Amino acid sequence: MTGFVVAIDGPAASGKSTTARLVAERLDFLYLDTGAMYRAVTWKAVERGLDLDDAIALGELVGDTALTLEPDGQGARVLVDGQDVTDRIRTPEISRGVSAVASVPAVRTRMVELQRAAARSRRCVMEGRDIGTVVFPDAPVKIFLEASLEERARRRRDELAARGVSQSLEELRREILERDRLDSERDESPLRRAPDAIPIDTTGLTIDEQVAEVVRVVERALSEPAGG
Ligand code: CDP
Predict the structure, then answer these.
(1) What is the tally of helices (H) and strands (E) in the chain?
(2) Which residues pair with 71 in a beta bridge?
(3) Atom 15 of ligand 1 has which residue's CA nearest to it?
(4) Distance CA 159, CA 148 (A)
(5) Which atom of ligand 1 is nearest to the CA of 130?
(6) CB distance 13 to ligand 1 below 6 Å
(7) For each of the chain's 228 residues, which pLDDT tens digit applies?
């Protein structure tokens, strides 16, 4: 079987990465973090000193960039032109710039091509903003993860703290809201829940519970003839 995609979408810091990675591990599917791809392009643009509102320059940049996600025990290493940038794409600076880069049509076209190619021959859990709406509108499983703003800011603060980066809850709340606004209001592939996506609010759930819930949905879909 090819192309069985579990699409997980949702707003910033809603638990997509952790959930998607653990679901993929549990089911032995490929895990693909599409946000990491947009972050990687943003990192290269910042490195080059590009204006992040310059769509033409960003389109050229993306055409000239080799992007690889290499699965490892923790998720995936992100390589830009052979250079490992896994940690460098998670800084507050990149988080602030990524929505602008991700709104550029030429950037999205290239990323979506890579995403579709990655899932061509493998079962895959793919997470992002537009997986169930644009990248794989026919995905047999679509999940939309949500959580309260307060909870999302707390999770992001702890995640950053674990990597030695300190950012206040208040600032994180502001940045998360702003990124959600930009991602939802853009013309190109805005963040939306696909009508057939299953919403899961993770605010009061443990990681184990949210992973189990998604695995249940996937196993049900796999056991249906149409899903197999
Ligand atoms: O981890 P977090 O939820 O904060 O963000 P992410 O998944 O790493 O995505 C970073 C940014 O990439 C988002 O804010 C979007 O602007 C963009 N993105 C997108 O446009 N489409 C996707 N499929 C995934 C991410």
Answers:
(1) 8, 8
(2) 76
(3) 99
(4) 17
(5) 23
(6) yes
(7) 467 999 999 999 999 999 999 999 999 999 999 999 999 999 999 999 999 999 999 999 999 999 999 988 777 899 999 999 999 999 999 999 999 999 999 999 999 999 999 999 899 999 999 999 999 999 999 999 999 999 999 999 999 999 899 999 999 999 999 999 999 999 999 999 999 999 999 999 999 999 999 999 999 999 987 644
